[in-house]
């Protein structure tokens, strides 16, 4: 089949938009708490609303994908996300923010389900691994850029001494005192543009392999009776607790304990957290050619634990470095856990992948627990719960028994000698 490079570039753009919209909440957290007068628990309902949508939509989206195909699913996803961003932009209140984030999360979940099979077909199966890694780098770049855009918008809107272009655009639509809402107007425009781009694009026919098909609910329920499936569901659940538990609370932590400005300092540190995750992915690609993925996972967990401890209990200037290094350390975890999971069962991989994506709900539920602990004992104690997730992640390297292990230079050489 002829490769469709336009669609490949379009998918990369979709990855950028997903990340740009998804990973900004941590940068906004301190100002959202201040402007809406929230406790840490009420603040935690915001990422809960976003990521619980993954738990609700991932499996149904996979089933709908087989019936309605990629273009219709992606159109619906961007339209739903656009509506979510628009209603909060027009009515910037906490009780509107929650359903708005749920709609945006639902759209992002639908996109995640649709774009991977499309990337395999449009870019070619032989290039799928390379294109997937490149997509993750673009994903990380967007998460790095989004906080910078926030800082730029807020800085210009708060600049009392000038009448700049940003002020001219947003002056009459942003209520006084909440300049960060301007970012959701940017999201709304961007998502609407994506609706138009998807609508005018011609999509190739994607024929799912039998093993990629989502399967019916009976198949999913049968998988949940498998101990291995449950263990890996918890693994993804816990990983999301680490990733979101750091990225969502880091700016608030730096403000609370070290008095760093959330927009000028906190937001860029969140950006660097995601940026270092992208850099770590590149290193991870090399390590996976040298070592068993289970050993890499255990090593990554040890380094993440060390850097988290330094960030939580060290001085402020060191925390500014340590938090991004946590991102660097956990960068390989998602791909390793996901591949170990799929390589540990011999059938129904499409359905299993849907279950693993549903486990992203961990990024929602564990935030509530961190927020509650933070209100009760302080945010430092709340974020210390991340150690529980790290302990479980470390244990995977001990109990995981994949049917197929990752190929290393050593294993390839041994296979050639046989």
Summarize the helices and strands and which ones pair or pack.
Elements: H1 5-22, H2 25-36, H3 40-90, H4 94-123, H5 128-157, H6 165-170, H7 182-200, H8 217-223, H9 227-247, H10 250-258, H11 262-287, H12 293-313, H13 316-330, H14 333-342, H15 349-358, H16 362-377, H17 379-383, H18 386-399, H19 409-417
Explain this structure to me?
With 418 residues, the chain is an all-alpha fold. It has a single domain (5-417), classed as MFS general substrate transporter like domains (Growth Hormone, Chain: A), CATH 1.20.1250. The chain has helices at 5-22, 25-36, 40-90, 94-123, 128-157, 165-170, 182-200, 217-223, 227-247, 250-258, 262-287, 293-313, 316-330, 333-342, 349-358, 362-377, 379-383, 386-399, 409-417. Helix 2 packs across helix 3 (40-90), helix 10 (250-258) packs antiparallel against helix 13 and helix 12 runs antiparallel to helix 13. The chain is globular, with a radius of gyration of 21 Å. The protein starts with a helix and ends with a helix.
Order of helices and strands: HHHHHHHHHHHHHHHHHHH
Query: Can you tell me the CATH superfamily?
Result: MFS general substrate transporter like domains
Q: Give the tally of structural domains.
A: 1
Number of helices: 19
Instruction: Indicate the low-confidence ranges by residue numbers.
Output: none
CATH-scheme architecture: Up-down Bundle
Helical content, roughly?
Answer: over 70%
Q: What's the CATH C level?
A: Mainly Alpha
CATH topology: Growth Hormone, Chain: A
């Amino acid at each position: 089949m002829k490769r469709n490079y336009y669609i490949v570039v379009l998918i990369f753009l979709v990855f950028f938009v997903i990340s740009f919209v998804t990973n900004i909440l941590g940068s906004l957290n301190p100002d959202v708490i201040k402007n809406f007068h929230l406790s840490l628990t009420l603040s935690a309902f915001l990422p809960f609303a976003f990521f619980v949508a993954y738990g609700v939509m991932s499996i149904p989206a996979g089933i709908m994908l087989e019936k309605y195909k990629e273009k219709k699913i992606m159109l619906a996803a961007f339209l739903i996300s656009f509506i979510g961003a628009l209603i909060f932009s027009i009515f910037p209140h906490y009780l509107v923010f929650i359903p708005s984030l749920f709609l945006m999360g639902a759209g992002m979940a639908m996109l995640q389900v649709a774009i991977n099979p499309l990337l395999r077909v449009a870019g070619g199966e032989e290039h799928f691994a390379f294109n997937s890694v490149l997509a993750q780098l673009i994903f990380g770049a967007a998460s790095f850029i989004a906080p910078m855009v926030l800082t730029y918008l807020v800085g210009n809107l708060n600049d009392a001494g000038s009448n700049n272009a940003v002020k001219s655009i947003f002056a009459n639509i942003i209520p006084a005192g909440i300049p960060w809402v301007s970012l959701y107007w940017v999201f709304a425009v961007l998502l609407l543009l994506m609706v138009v781009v998807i609508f005018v694009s011609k999509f190739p026919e994607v024929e799912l392999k039998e093993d990629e098909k989502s399967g019916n609910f009976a198949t999913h329920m049968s998988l949940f009776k498998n101990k291995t499936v449950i263990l890996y569901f918890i693994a993804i659940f816990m990983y999301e607790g680490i990733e979101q538990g750091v990225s969502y609370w880091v700016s608030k932590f730096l403000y609370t304990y070290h008095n760093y400005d959330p927009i000028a300092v906190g937001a860029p540190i969140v950006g660097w957290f995601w940026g270092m995750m992208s850099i770590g992915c590149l290193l991870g690609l090399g390590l996976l050619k040298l070592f068993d993925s289970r050993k890499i996972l255990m090593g990554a967990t040890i380094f993440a634990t060390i850097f988290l401890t330094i960030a939580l209990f060290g001085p402020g200037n060191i925390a500014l470095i340590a938090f991004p290094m946590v991102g660097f350390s956990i960068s390989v975890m998602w791909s390793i856990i996901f591949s170990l999971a799929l390589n540990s069962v011999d059938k129904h991989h499409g359905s299993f992948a849907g279950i693993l994506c549903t486990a992203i709900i961990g990024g929602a539920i564990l935030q509530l627990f961190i927020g509650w602990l933070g209100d009760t004992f302080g945010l430092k104690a709340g974020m210390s719960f991340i150690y529980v997730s790290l302990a479980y992640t470390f244990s995977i390297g001990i109990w995981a028994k994949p049917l197929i292990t990752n190929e290393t230079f050593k294993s390839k050489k041994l296979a050639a000698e046989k």
